[in-house]
Write a sequence for this structure.
């Protein structure tokens, strides 16, 4: 109760900030420092700090990888410096990042974990590291150009209407795949892993969420297609990437359609497929070895095979409903026979929600959003956990299976120039797919600064 009281006070504080800045101009700057729209150079930064907590909740039992049933709180922080230079149709990008702090229960015990900023191995510390180092090449296929919003990953203010884009270097797979206008920006929108991303998309990444790879895409106003070849980690949730492409790599293919569903409203439909090759284990082999008495406990790490394949699919929609309303939908599936390896322990997921811009209460740069998510795992995966097996995130010692159900809502307020404050609330039923634990309420606060 004390944690809920603290969170309530923090929400009240953010509400007071809304009133203080109510008299701000209609179109104030949204970065602390002004940035040129035409300069060939790019220099910007972000700071994102998230506080989350939960009170005591019911748990019939707990295991090594359980969400702690006792009240707890944690704060994470991510600081990123973005740099780049544009040389006509070639861009060179270099980003440095520092991730520190922790998530509740050190990110264990939930498939849909509450904070996308959390590094899944807090022992890595907060020492700065290279997040991205990338060459971005644009190949024009038409003379006509269209306006383009400059971002740290694309510096051109105009792009050819038809074009090929090629990127190679260190990057995040979800910098370019499975993007969604309503549910992808964890710094201003939702923060749950399986709402801000497709939970069943076991995308190539190290522990911090980055990999080396190449992305080739073709774009025109109504259609786009992109293909990416990425490196997989050597072990599940590992920091070291495997450079032996013969048995370890990830292919990603996404088709994007931009139809006109509602007049003058933006729409996007994305179809995703991926195939991972890695030193992955089989849930069924681990179960059979345990039942035969060969292993003292189910241990998927003992049944890994180089070059094992795992495939999955995704559907991703976003739709403008009015000038201020937007909605989104995601669905994902992967085969679930082999271990969850790089993102989270989900074999099937559905998420949907909406956001509303604050024009109606004269807060144009504020947003309120709400979303629901349903996560599930395969029969082999749930039996492995029931018998006492552990994944890299889950393991209560046993399991009375139920789908993980998540609701998340937030309010993000534009406080001053590039400073944004958010209050958020998450409610999770069957944490870690276990009906013998939960539900759990997770209130939180976020401070985001764009420099």
């Amino acid at each position: 109760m004390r944690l809920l009281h603290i969170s309530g006070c923090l929400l009240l504080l953010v509400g007071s900030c809304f009133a203080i800045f109510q008299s701000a101009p209609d179109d104030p700057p949204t970065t602390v420092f002004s940035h040129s729209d035409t300069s060939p150079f790019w220099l910007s930064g972000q700071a994102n700090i998230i506080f989350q907590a939960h009170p005591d909740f019911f748990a019939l039992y707990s295991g090594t990888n359980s969400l702690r049933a006792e009240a707890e709180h944690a704060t994470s922080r991510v600081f990123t410096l973005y740099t780049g230079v544009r040389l006509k149709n070639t861009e060179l990008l270099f980003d440095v990042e520092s991730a520190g702090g922790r998530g509740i229960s050190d990110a264990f015990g939930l498939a849909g974990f509450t904070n996308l900023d959390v590094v899944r191995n807090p022992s890595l510390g907060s020492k700065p590291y290279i997040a991205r180092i990338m060459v971005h090449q644009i190949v024009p296929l038409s003379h006509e150009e269209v306006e383009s919003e400059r971002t740290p990953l694309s510096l051109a203010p105009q792009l050819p209407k038809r074009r090929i884009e090629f990127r190679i270097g260190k990057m995040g797979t979800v910098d370019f795949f499975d993007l969604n206008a309503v549910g992808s920006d964890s710094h201003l929108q939702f923060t749950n892993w399986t709402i801000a991303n497709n939970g069943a998309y076991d995308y190539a990444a190290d522990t911090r969420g980055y990999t080396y790879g190449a992305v080739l895409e073709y774009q025109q106003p109504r259609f786009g297609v992109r293909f990416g070849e990425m490196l997989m980690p050597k072990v599940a949730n590992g920091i070291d990437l495997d450079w032996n492409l013969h048995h370890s790599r990830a292919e990603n293919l996404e088709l994007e359609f931009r139809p006109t569903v509602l007049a003058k409203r933006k729409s996007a439909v994305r179809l995703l497929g991926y195939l991972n090759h890695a030193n992955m284990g089989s849930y069924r082999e681990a179960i059979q070895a345990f039942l035969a008495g060969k292993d003292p406990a189910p241990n998927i790490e003992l049944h890994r095979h180089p070059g094992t394949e795992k495939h999955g699919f995704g559907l991703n929609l976003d739709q403008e409903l009015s000038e201020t309303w937007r909605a989104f939908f995601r669905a994902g599936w992967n085969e679930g026979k082999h271990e969850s390896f790089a993102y989270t322990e989900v074999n099937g997921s559905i998420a949907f929600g909406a956001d509303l811009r604050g024009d109606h209460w004269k807060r144009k740069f504020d947003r309120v959003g709400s979303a629901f998510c349903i996560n599930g795992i395969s029969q082999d995966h749930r039996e492995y956990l029931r018998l006492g097996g552990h994944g890299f995130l889950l393991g209560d010692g046993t399991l009375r299976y139920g789908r993980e159900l998540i609701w998340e809502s937030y309010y993000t307020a534009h406080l001053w120039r590039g400073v944004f404050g958010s209050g958020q609330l998450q409610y999770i039923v069957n944490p870690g797919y276990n009906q013998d634990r939960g539900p759990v309420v997770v209130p939180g606060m976020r401070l985001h600064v764009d420099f």
Confidence is low (pLDDT under 50) at residues 1-25.
